[in-house]
Amino acid sequence: MSEMVTAHIEPEDVPEGARRAKRTPWDWWLADGEALHAEHPRSFFIPERARREALRPGELVKLEFGYGPHADLESEGHVERMWVEVLGETGRGRLRNQPFRLSELDLGDEIAFGPEHVISIDFSDEELGYEQDQSALVDVRVLEEGRPPDAVIRAGGVWFLLCRESGSGPVNERVNRLIDLFPSLIEPFRAGEGMWEREADDRWRRVEPDPRLVAELERFVRP
Fold it and tell me: Looking at the structure, do residues 118 and 136 belong to the same domain, yes or no?
């Protein structure tokens, strides 16, 4: 199966007249977020079960849609994470993203789901403990290679995500996009000012500033 993409970072408005039929899966399915979390507890985070069982109409939840080659516009099979708006009826929502490749679904379709399928909730900044719309300076390798950073630094109100032995240079990326790619980043993003290094099991350890990484940071700021 091809690697996962997020159809859209932000939910989209459902246009008037959009299809809203209840869709029965044929060659697509919803991933079990609880099973994924159990398999990767330090890198795949999901909201607490009680919160996933207490969803309110109008809230947005993110689900992971898997699908086979018959439902894929490129005939390969794929995975997309998309936003779904919770409806008044328990266990139903309305798709709030237009899929990139999943041909069986459209923006506005109704989706049946359970608490086990919810991998993220559109929390407020206060509920999460960090500002989702802020940007970070990120080593290009993080995004090009799909690899988590080796170090995270928060200094002067700016986030920096670095890779060791990299000459790539920085790009700007939104914090909520980075957490979508690497859920374990929630830990340092919630903690605030300081420096963290990633360990082998994706745990983050707070450390004293590394002079070499600080020099790398200065090169990011003044290339």
Answer: no
